[in-house]
């Protein structure tokens, strides 16, 4: 019995050991994945360590600290930990909030002490308590304002904290001044360490991230649309060139990107000019593009519901509808990808217009064709999925046009370069096509190399940029062009 | 010249005064609006003030503080300001994070001091510095894990801060123990003040809010769908009963509710049993319902693109399609509203099934009707909008069914009461109808009164709960039922 129990214990111990090992391996794997997804995460972690080391070194070897004493130096460490954020903009925003709030609250608290110092041993704490109650309540309420919440939430917290502490502390006269001065110094030292490390060591700019996120989202929509066209075509016997599910469903991450875009735009507003982004770069316009991209993503979500819908046996009508759908989705997709590239390399997005025109004329032709009558007693049920897809795609084309307009506005406000007509569109396309397989436009250094070789705006040789993946599709497109009657 | 300048100055001063007044009035108005939207914001602000007053009073009148000294008492104030959140769950979460992180970091830092104390005057700070660097880097990296970010982000910050401070401080032996003990005491007092005020004074439960938010979102979808049916019908000469744009477009707020739902579910997990929510209430299932509701909202967004689409002159086919659309959207809308009510009053949502069945059979009938052929040479363009709307609505009916399934799962897991068949469905409907005009289900106290009088699950008298707003629609519905051939 004892032996059995002992052996069971050993087996249990062994099993637990194996489980623990599996958990550790899992954890190591997901840490590696987290770092590989965005190596800047690793850099950021090391930067926080570095900033702390810097203030520690200052603490251990600098005479400055002897003036402050242990209890004050914690504020330097605390400031570093609470202010150091992932991007420069977020760090500057928090540092600014902390500095200004400390200054304001300190000043007001000293004023409050001055006002109440003659009220006696009972009166003074009562009135001070009332003031603390009032400012805490009012400041807390102000934090509910969306605008204050977005940019000054941390400052409000520090304001309440500093005012309350100085008021409650019961300190008098010059001791308060000394305390307030020391607090300001420590906060400044900590804040400066954060800002310096954040900007000087491999800086992460929120503005740059917002710029890339918007370009990436538009590119994902483009890939999903182009992929939809190819997949839809494949069901009719054609050959699909994109079948990676991850790329097809890229639009899904656009559906819920509102919060990230808004916070990046908020942080970007704190940042100084950097890289290709000058002072007063129109960050708000990125949000406009983002909103329109989301509206397009909602349509694509509706569209993807029909990707695997029952296909009825083909008829002449459903063939025509499906071909038109393919053109609309592929051309909208190409237009969106050109727009994404234009944002990425900061040139005027003129090359997208020809694709939009093609998508629009395909929509128009489809309408005309249907209007002129098919001349046979058709079965509505057989074309219902096709008609719906066509109808949503017409909507998508409109969305694409709106996105293009908003990007044109962004490009002219932000003074993007004009595209130089030095290269044939094929080259640009070949450069871009490599991007299709990559989940992140950020990882396409070759795109940047193409900057000075961008495409001419709707040149006479425009037709050479038309889709070549499928000859059948191309022929149909010409058929549609020839049939344009309206 | 001098006079003119002076008069201009006066005018300028006056204009500025008027502007300042306008700004003040604007601000007061938006503060009032903010408070009226959710009066709990005002209560929360006063609660924060109250908690601060409590710890101040303790500070001024309790001998406890004499043991701590000024520099330690700031930690009580700081804990109150940083831990006190809007909901009980968030407050408990932050308090727990702060307490555990302080304890852990304090213990580890003391251990680190113990290990390094024999390394000499140069060796000790160097090794301690290395340890600070390592723990700060690793902890910062761990904060990027989504799960840790969601529940333990604040704890990680406090951990880095406390460990770094104690390691860097250069304090020795019993001084460190005293410091760590004092820190733990102050954090406990501050945390206790927060938790007590948060729970005892008009508590805001995140779980309750999540429950209401999900019910409200489902209700908004229902209103939008029902409104769509009515609006769509109105364009054909019928009379619409909902034309408040705010209610029609309620679905829009569902599109971006993911983040709020997730954070509420996170906070709810920290909360003790409260009100109607027992221990281990299945908060995760609410997120599932929320995700399905968002998918439905994407479809409704696509649908609303066709609300103002050009209506072609009516034909027999488009009439049939539009009538079927009206039934599908109105019945799905009614089903969603019944489901919302079932969540709200926590009963089994059986009464919604009959509406879903009607919507489904309408979809089926439409398909059969189209399949049996219309027998005339129809103009596809004239029915394209109708066919698209019908097709999206068939998708919406599927979504509604999925939502109903997930709510059934929620109801059985959370052991909602069964509906008691003591009242005819009309009464419930009349009670519910009052809700339609109200933008928030939360503000419908009369609904709660109906709890024990809820509707029987698909009783034989089911047809009496059919839509009565429009006789014409009803007749068509019966026509469809009679024609059911599949």
UniProtKB/TrEMBL annotation, chains A, B:
<comment type="similarity">
    <text>Belongs to the aromatic acid exporter (TC 2.A.85) family.</text>
</comment>
<feature type="region of interest" description="Disordered">
    <location>
        <begin position="452"/>
        <end position="471"/>
    </location>
</feature>
<dbReference type="GO" id="GO:0034220">
    <property type="term" value="P:monoatomic ion transmembrane transport"/>
</dbReference>
<keyword id="KW-0407">Ion channel</keyword>
<feature type="transmembrane region" description="Helical">
    <location>
        <begin position="42"/>
        <end position="61"/>
    </location>
</feature>
<keyword id="KW-1133">Transmembrane helix</keyword>
<feature type="compositionally biased region" description="Low complexity">
    <location>
        <begin position="452"/>
        <end position="469"/>
    </location>
</feature>
<dbReference type="GO" id="GO:0015743">
    <property type="term" value="P:malate transport"/>
</dbReference>
<dbReference type="InterPro" id="IPR020966">
    <property type="entry name" value="ALMT"/>
</dbReference>
<feature type="transmembrane region" description="Helical">
    <location>
        <begin position="73"/>
        <end position="92"/>
    </location>
</feature>
<feature type="transmembrane region" description="Helical">
    <location>
        <begin position="187"/>
        <end position="206"/>
    </location>
</feature>
<keyword id="KW-0812">Transmembrane</keyword>
<keyword id="KW-0813">Transport</keyword>
<keyword id="KW-0472">Membrane</keyword>
<protein>
    <recommendedName>
        <fullName>Aluminum-activated malate transporter</fullName>
    </recommendedName>
</protein>
<dbReference type="Pfam" id="PF11744">
    <property type="entry name" value="ALMT"/>
</dbReference>
<keyword id="KW-0406">Ion transport</keyword>
<dbReference type="GO" id="GO:0016020">
    <property type="term" value="C:membrane"/>
</dbReference>
<feature type="transmembrane region" description="Helical">
    <location>
        <begin position="127"/>
        <end position="145"/>
    </location>
</feature>
<feature type="transmembrane region" description="Helical">
    <location>
        <begin position="157"/>
        <end position="181"/>
    </location>
</feature>
